[in-house]
């Protein structure tokens, strides 16, 4: 399976994503933001970081980057695209996913382990998942998901919510909402279910020495579903 | 502009120094030259009050590749891998403008590390604030934490450990010390020594603006009522540009284009060009019209003294200009050939085709002033007699809760949760432990690092305090299973012109020299920050030690959380019940006098090395050093982290239980072992003549000291974790 990770100026989880994808069997290529063409890919990943220094708005400048036109075409043709953290912000800024990501509720950067509950397993990212809640990790300043009531109704009706922040048992409540996201939303899908954006970093949970292996499950599942 | 003595004094130089400049130049300097002298001769850049004493520190060792004198120190960790590390202060700017001051402190120290070719892999910080009740403390704390996070998070370098303290002596002068570790291949280390004549001198990074002019001079003076006026001397950071600069520099460094490289830190273009020329024993000629400027009509004086961030100066091999330019263009960074190396051994600056400065390099460096300032010795004060009735009404659990929720002991999670501590995917011990630990990427090795300071001990007796802090750093590395290798130090003191403050400095340095020599724990880099004082009042002497150690196999790393019910807890090291200068005596009985705990370097070394042997044999399940707050505080933290309890044995000592539980004797650890290993462990301890006591047994959920004194772990967690969050949310 071929994957591509896009490096924007200021991306800083691109190497971590590269390590994770390779660990679970992807042949990964790093792609520079200023390139025109995507290499042949079964999966394109927009990694975390501070593309363009988060200037203007997080993800906004990266969404206008040269390579993004290819990514958008790839996604619109049904290609699988995943955006993590800043990558999620880039996906909403480029219009591939609905909604926006606002500054965290308490106006502070948060770096900690969180639990997320999988809401929709009828998509290639979470198909055949043998767990319902996962221990993931977040590290962001602007991760508070927000959208209009109409949009919320639409993504609910289309079952586009991928992940909710929850406790270890899958209870979704305000106590387990780390950043003030609408309805505890941690990740969403597009209507066609080939694009996933999420704030948590599965690539930081791929080793028992790194406080968890739920990221490993995620990546193993991902490559299996692509085969 | 006419240059005279008064202009020199306005630049922070004294009369004698001005006279010396005129003698060295054999003429009166012009304004640009005077600015350059003042920048190079201020305390921050010249170490004029400290050099005389620092030369006594041990700086060599079998693992030391580079000691002090370069951008950072370098140590060998085997397999052609080396760690580059350094700590630096950014105290004065952080008090004036906490966000930018702290952010650029972090940016500056990372630049020091990647200038040497190393990719930064971990950040640490030691931050000290005034009393929590002081009106500025909360704002300063918030600003500093946001600044550190804002810069480090954007760079994508994990902040893996730190230290925060509160003391009224920092009311008018907070301390912000930032440390970075980088990883480099031993044969790809870059130095700042220029070599070869006619080599192009390259300027890369951000443009030069008017920010930070005279920043280093500001940091070399005390504060007064007009500190708000000093805001323009604080630099403004842009971590995004620094991230690009990091990647571009590392890309250029992968080839063989660079002869020498130096970041533009304190005193900007001045110190970077002069340092490269001085080390290479040659001259540098610069055309200031070629320097990329952010603002129009900048004068030579401003260009030379600007402390704009995210800039580097490089001496390139001839013919590599195009290749280098291509890399910096790719990363959208400024690139300009601004001069060349010459044989003149002078720094020669041109502006609008006129020579605006012409200074022999050695007059700025070798001939810079050095002072053996007057200093006063601090006497060791007598032990305090505490009357029995002072203990009478105290309840152990109440005391414990008070100590655990004390601002200097309580959990600092509110702080470190705002730092990305997991990016790069190698953080295997997060903040809140004895040391932060990161794996050496792609290998089985790991590097541990810790920052420590004990201003109270240093204040009570600088010589003992200096020793103690090196030992504490050593213990924090041992406790995670790392072999201590070397340290970096950040020496924060009041005015060197005050005999008491200078005495504190001299004796602290002496103490840390003695301890680091004995422990074979050399000092490879560091920084001195004097004038941490407002008007006549200096801070408590605060040497901060950043220690670095190596874990050969990261799977053998130790954490402090209690692991398993029924396991046995041993106390390693001798307990005498020393209460003076302990948090118990200061905070519970309000007694601030008396000597700090004694340091026995033999025991310190022996205890630590024996623990490493036990870890090697896989006997240790958890370990924590006993420091601030004594045995009971240390054990409580192990309980809190592991969400387990412990039942204490009755001590065999005659000392009273408060001395036993809260005394701060040094050289001690608590270790958790399995019952089946007890005999083997005791054998090793006895063979190595290490004193130990059976402290107790791990249980499910209660800390039980005796029949009358017990407390649930949930209550301990509450005491430990609520103070800071509540304080910051009010």
Name the helicity range of chain B.
25-40%
Count of structural domains of chain A? 1
What do the pLDDT scores of chain A average to? 96
| Strands of chain A, count | 11
- What structural class do you assign from the helix and strand content of chain B? alpha+beta
**Gyration radius of chain B, in Å:** 26 Å
How far apart the termini of chain B lie comes to 53 Å
CATH architecture of chain A: 3-Layer(aba) Sandwich
Q: How do the strands of the widest beta sheet of chain B line up side by side? A: 8-10-7-11-9-12-13
Oligomer: heterodimer
Key descriptive features of the protein:
heterodimer; A: 227 residues; Rossmann fold; nine-stranded mixed sheet; two-stranded antiparallel sheet; 11 strands; B: 730 residues; seven-stranded mixed sheet; 28 strands
How is the topology of this model organized?
The complex is a heterodimer of chains A (227) and B (730).
Chain A: E1 2-7, H1 14-23, E2 27-32, E3 43-46, H2 66-76, E4 80-84, H3 86-93, E5 100-102, E6 110-118, E7 133-140, E8 144-146, H4 149-157, E9 161-166, E10 185-189, E11 195-198, H5 214-226
Parallel strand pairs in A: 1-2, 1-3, 3-4, 4-11
Antiparallel strand pairs in A: 5-8, 6-7, 6-9, 9-10, 10-11
Chain B: H1 5-10, H2 15-25, H3 31-41, H4 43-46, H5 51-54, E1 64-66, E2 73-76, E3 81-89, H6 91-96, H7 98-114, E4 119-129, H8 137-155, E5 159-166, E6 175-185, E7 200-205, H9 215-218, H10 239-253, E8 258-263, H11 268-280, E9 283-287, H12 300-305, E10 311-316, H13 321-330, E11 334-342, E12 346-351, E13 354-360, H14 361-364, H15 388-392, H16 396-404, H17 413-416, E14 427-429, E15 436-439, E16 446-452, H18 455-460, H19 462-478, E17 483-492, H20 499-518, E18 523-529, E19 533-534, E20 537-538, E21 542-551, E22 568-572, H21 583-588, H22 601-616, E23 622-625, H23 630-642, E24 645-648, H24 657-662, E25 669-673, H25 678-687, E26 692-699, E27 702-704, E28 710-712, H26 713-729
Parallel strand pairs in B: 4-5, 9-12, 17-18, 24-27
Antiparallel strand pairs in B: 1-2, 2-3, 3-6, 4-6, 7-10, 7-11, 8-10, 9-11, 12-13, 14-15, 15-16, 16-21, 17-21, 19-20, 22-25, 22-26, 23-25, 24-26, 27-28
């Amino acid at each position: 399976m071929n994957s591509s990770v896009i490096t924007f100026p200021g991306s800083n989880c691109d190497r971590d994503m590269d390590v994770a994808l390779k660990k679970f069997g992807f042949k990964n290529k790093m792609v520079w933001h200023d390139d025109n063409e995507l290499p042949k890919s079964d999966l394109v990943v927009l990694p975390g970081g501070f593309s363009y220094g988060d200037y203007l708005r997080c993800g906004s400048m990266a969404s206008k980057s040269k390579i993004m036109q290819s990514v958008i075409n790839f996604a619109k043709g049904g290609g699988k695209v995943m955006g993590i953290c800043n990558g999620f912000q880039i996906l909403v800024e480029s219009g591939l996913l609905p909604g926006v990501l606002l500054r965290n509720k308490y106006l502070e950067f948060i770096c900690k382990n969180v639990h997320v509950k999988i809401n929709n397993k009828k998509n290639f990212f979470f198909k055949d998942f043998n767990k319902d809640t996962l221990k993931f990790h977040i590290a962001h300043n602007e991760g508070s998901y927000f959208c209009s009531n109409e949009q919320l109704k639409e993504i609910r009706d289309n079952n586009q919510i991928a992940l909710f922040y929850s406790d270890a048992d899958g209870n979704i409540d305000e106590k387990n909402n780390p950043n003030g996201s609408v309805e505890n939303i941690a990740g969403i899908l597009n209507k066609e279910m080939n694009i996933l954006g999420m704030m948590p970093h599965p690539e930081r949970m791929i080793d028992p020495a790194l406080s968890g292996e739920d990221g490993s499950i995620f990546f193993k599942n991902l490559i299996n579903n692509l085969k | 502009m006419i240059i005279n003595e008064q202009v020199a004094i306005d630049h922070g130089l004294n009369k004698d120094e001005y006279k010396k400049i005129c003698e060295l130049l054999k003429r009166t300097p012009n304004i640009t030259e005077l600015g350059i002298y003042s920048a190079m001769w201020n305390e921050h850049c010249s170490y004029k009050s400290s050099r005389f004493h620092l030369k006594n520190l041990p700086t060599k060792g079998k693992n030391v590749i580079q000691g002090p004198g370069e951008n950072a120190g370098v140590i060998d960790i085997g397999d052609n891998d080396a760690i580059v590390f350094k700590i630096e202060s950014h105290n004065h700017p952080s008090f004036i403008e906490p966000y930018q001051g702290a952010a650029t402190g972090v940016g500056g120290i990372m630049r020091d590390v990647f200038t040497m070719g190393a990719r930064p892999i971990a950040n640490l910080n030691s931050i000290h604030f005034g009393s929590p009740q002081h009106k500025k403390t909360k704002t300063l704390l918030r600003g500093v934490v946001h600044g550190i996070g804002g810069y480090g998070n954007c760079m994508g370098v994990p902040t893996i450990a730190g230290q925060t303290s509160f003391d009224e002596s920092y009311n008018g002068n907070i301390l912000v010390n930032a440390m970075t570790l980088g990883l480099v291949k031993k044969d790809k280390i870059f130095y700042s020594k220029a070599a070869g004549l006619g080599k192009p001198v390259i300027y890369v990074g951000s443009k030069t603006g008017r920010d930070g002019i005279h920043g280093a001079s500001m940091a070399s003076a005390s504060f007064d009522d007009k500190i708000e006026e000093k805001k323009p001397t604080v630099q403004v950071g842009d971590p995004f540009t620094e991230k690009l600069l990091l990647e571009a520099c590392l890309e250029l460094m992968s080839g063989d284009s660079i002869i020498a490289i130096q970041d533009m830190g304190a005193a900007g273009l001045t110190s970077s060009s002069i340092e490269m020329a001085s080390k290479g024993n040659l001259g540098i000629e610069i055309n200031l019209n070629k320097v990329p400027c952010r603002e129009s009509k900048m004068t030579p004086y401003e260009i030379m003294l600007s402390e704009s961030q995210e800039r580097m100066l490089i001496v390139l091999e001839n013919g590599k200009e195009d290749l280098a330019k291509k890399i910096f263009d790719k990363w959208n960074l400024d690139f300009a050939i601004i001069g060349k190396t010459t044989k003149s051994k002078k720094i020669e600056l041109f502006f609008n085709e006129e020579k605006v400065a012409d200074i022999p390099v050695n007059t700025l460096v070798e001939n810079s002033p050095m002072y053996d300032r007057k200093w006063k010795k601090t006497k060791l004060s007598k032990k305090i007699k505490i009357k029995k009735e002072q203990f009478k009404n105290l309840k152990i659990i109440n005391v414990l809760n008070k100590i655990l929720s004390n601002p200097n002991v309580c959990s600092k999670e509110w702080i470190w949760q705002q730092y990305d501590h997991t990016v790069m995917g190698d953080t295997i011990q997060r903040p809140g432990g004895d040391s932060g630990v990161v794996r050496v990427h792609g290998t089985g090795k790991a590097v541990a690092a810790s920052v420590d300071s004990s201003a109270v001990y240093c204040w009570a007796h600088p010589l003992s305090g200096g020793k103690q802090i090196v030992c504490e750093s050593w213990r924090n590395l041992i406790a995670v299973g790392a072999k201590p290798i070397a340290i970096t130090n950040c020496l924060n003191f009041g005015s060197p012109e005050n005999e008491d403050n200078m005495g504190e400095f001299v004796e602290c340095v002496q103490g840390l020299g003695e301890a680091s020599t004995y422990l074979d724990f050399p000092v490879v880099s560091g920084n001195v920050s004097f004038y941490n004082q407002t008007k006549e009042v200096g801070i408590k002497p605060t040497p901060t030690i950043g220690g670095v150690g190596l874990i050969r196999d990261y799977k053998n790393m130790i954490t402090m959380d209690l692991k398993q019910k029924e396991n046995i807890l041993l106390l390693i090291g001798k307990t005498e019940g020393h209460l003076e200068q302990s948090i118990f005596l200061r905070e519970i009985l309000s007694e601030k006098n008396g000597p700090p705990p004694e340091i026995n370097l033999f025991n310190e070394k022996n205890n630590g090395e024996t623990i490493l042997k036990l870890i090697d044999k896989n006997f240790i399940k958890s370990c924590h050093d006993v420091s601030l707050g004594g045995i009971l505080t240390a054990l409580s933290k192990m309980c809190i982290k592991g969400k387990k309890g412990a039942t204490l044995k009755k001590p065999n000592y005659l000392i009273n239980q408060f001395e036993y539980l809260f005394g701060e004797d040094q050289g001690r650890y608590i270790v958790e072992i399995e019952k089946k290993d007890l005999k083997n462990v005791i054998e090793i301890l006895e063979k190595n003549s290490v004193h130990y006591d059976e402290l107790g047994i791990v249980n499910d959920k209660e800390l039980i000291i005796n029949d009358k004194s017990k407390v649930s772990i949930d209550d301990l967690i509450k005491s430990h974790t609520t103070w800071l969050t509540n304080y910051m949310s009010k």
